[in-house]
Amino acid sequence: MSLLDVRGLTAGYGAVPVVRDVGLSVERGELVALLGANGAGKTTTLLAISGLVGLQAGEITLDGRPVTALTPARRARAGIQHVPEDRSLFPSLTVDETIRLACRTRRAPGWVLDLFPALERLGGRRVAALSGGEQQMLALARALCRDPSLLVVDEMSLGLAPLVVNAFFPVLRRVAAERGCGVLIVEQHVHVALRWVDRVHVMAGGTVAASGTVEEMRPRIDELAGAYLGPSAYPTEGDKP
Amino acid sequence: MTSSLGPEQVLAFVALGLGYGALIAGLATGLVVTYRSSGVINVAAGATAALVAYVYSELRTTGVPFALVIGLVVAAVLGALQYLLVYRPLAKAGPLAKLVASSGVLLTAQAVIVLRWGADPVAAPAILPQETVDLLGVSIPQDRLLLAGLVIVATALLWALYRHTRFGIATRATADSAKGSVLLGLSTGRLEVANWVIASVLGGLFGMLAAPTTQLQPTTFTLLVVPVLTAALLGGFSSFGVTVATAFGLGVVNSLIALLQGQSWFPQVEGTPLPGVTELVPFLVLAVTLYLRGRALPDRLTAVAPPMPRAPRPRRAGPAMAVGAVVAVAALAGLPFDWRQALVNSMLGAVLCLSVVVTTGFVGQISFAQMAVAGAAGYVMATVGGDLGLPFPLPPLAGIAAAVLTSLLFSVPARRVRGLQLAVLTLAGGVAAQRFWFGNPQWGSGLRPANVAPITVFGMEISPSRSFWGTEPPSQGFGLVVLAALLGCVFLVAWLRRSDLGARMLAVRSSEAAAAATGVNVGAVKTLAFAIGGLLAGVAGVLYGYTFTGVSADRFGPLTSIAFFGVAVLGGVGTVGGALVGGLLVAQGLLFHAVTTWFGIPPDYQPLFAGLAVVLTVIGSPDGVAVSVADAARSLRVRRLALGES
Ligand SMILES: Nc1ncnc2c1ncn2[C@@H]1O[C@H](COP(=O)(O)OP(=O)(O)O)[C@@H](O)[C@H]1O
Ligand SMILES: [Mg+2]
Question: Which residue in A2, A175, B247, B522 has its CB near the most CB atoms, within 10 A?
């Protein structure tokens, strides 16, 4: 039984579905990437998993239990933490207040501080005054403070320098390995993702077009890129290993 | 009645003002709480606090502690119900819809009070000790000082609650990003209920504590919301400190004005001090501060962000007008007098709703002073025709000109102040106009109505009671005059919507910045909209004067403005058809008459139904009844077409 199992997911913003018959899974302790060109439906899929977009058909189970009938807040309490594309931080709060809200304690748990030592230094700063990288770190820390069984991160590297992005992947690996948390990320930079994740699902035209382990996918990457991922998938100078 | 003006008197009156200030402060901090958690400007706060105070006074025989506890429970329930029944369904609606819903709650609460306890003042037993204390040789009622102290303690507790507890942090977080809160797993609904309960309990508590020191009378208490809104607005709907300080300031100023009114040199009218000064002060404070601060206020307050009601172009306006005119003429000729009166009232209401269509529907400016503008027309007409004795058509023309000028006066702050702030400012302006002008014997008519001479053309009188076609009021001839005026106004607004200017108005409504960027002169467009809205309200005011053969201050009050605004929104504020539907729905109009005569519902219940209808309409059909009906008809047609094809 997978940690997250999505079957036949059909969802959209009005009557017309944007994603159709999506099937994907995430195991405990596994890092999975959802790849796809702009507009392929990745964000919509994640929103449907966390409940912010309604389901028209399909089934989502977490640890074998269906979550489809739960509100977004209940899904969050059931163990799904979603870091959305816009990060949805609270700009007028301080870093400490954000952590306190997420953890119910005044300090972040030791293992979160281990992953993000900078949190202590930023304590009293207002979120609005943080840099992009610091905000992404806080968004991840806020989600991890809830000790999720599934962490979903949309466009983690959006607007961040490659160096900063490269620092986040090891953190996610550790979260998966040490906490047994399943991690599902959407990542534009295919070659970066392939370096770190265990498995990928490739979306195109609102559905999953290919799935497989990194070993299976690596030889096909040029074919997949040409067929599904579009020009943004090709490595830029900074991404080259 | 004169008193001396020494330091002792000043100190005593300052202390008295602290009591009033405490009541304002208690309600205003509640307003800040609900605004921050739900984005609602709760204009009903005064009315619901009054409801709690009435319940308390009703239970006075059972003893103060019991009555107080039950009052607090009622306050908590009212707060929770308001959120669950009204604002939760409106969570995704724009600020306009929420404001209108809140006006509906105000009208409902007000109607319940009048139905249950009547409009006369009611006594409430004191909760706080009534002894006086000696302060610098002046004896001061202890309860005022206690009230002030309690408000300060309550505010400090609130501040600590929102600053330091997880509940407070969660509330602030949700105001920042509701999505972020939900994704974190917080129950935003529960947070909002809790905040509404806190605000309502706070308002109810200070309502009960202060009721014995002020008059427990429905309108007075409901209109407390004007100084309350002033305080909350100056606190930017976020700072408890500034809000409470402003509230105390207004309370003290209010009290000092009362002291000055007792001085022999204070202007006297008919043996009493010039009235309305206390209502003028919050308005002026608000107008000047908002004008000076202008854009510096939080965006959420200034933007009437979409969704606003839609404003589709009129279709087949010409034939519809012709058919309507024929039907109305036939109705005037054939209907018995009571139905004729209801028809005239509906036509009058439609003209007033048309003015709301222009100012709110087309340019997105919320004005709660439409009745004040109409009243300006009525009163100037009465003066020009009566005191100056000028012949027809000078009085109505002067009246309409006065209405345009009054409306333009409101457009001056509207050039810098937008959205909800303007709504609050016009509400304060409406109160000031009613008390300082219409109800002031110096410039208005005091408590009595001012006579309006009937229309006279070529020696023939066209008045509701004496005319060329039937003598039973309202005469058919007068009905024709009202119909002609309505048709003229409909034509004007329909033309406006199709004109270039109308397009620019809608552009301003959807985004002032975008409109300005495409070369629209936003200030000029707003000014023109206020002028045209004023013209329409002026026509309505003049016709009111003729209908009742006089004008009186109570017809042109702010609560009537709010009721009209609600009715206009009910009908649909974006279209001419909406204004006509609004006309059907007005108090004493056709629907009202049908319901009272056919179903035997006593007329006293009309305000209650009107209030509930406003709330329900906002929730059920935010574009107004007219657009919804048109939509339904269209989708029915589409479905038929589809069926026909298959
Ligand atoms: N709020 C929305 N309303 C309507 N359509 C939307 C909305 N958000 C996204 N879409 C449409 O859904 C499709 C998939 O979008 P999205 O899931 O954001 O793709 P991705 O994240 O893969 O770039 C796009 O065609 C987009 O235009
Ligand atoms: Mg996306």
Answer: B247
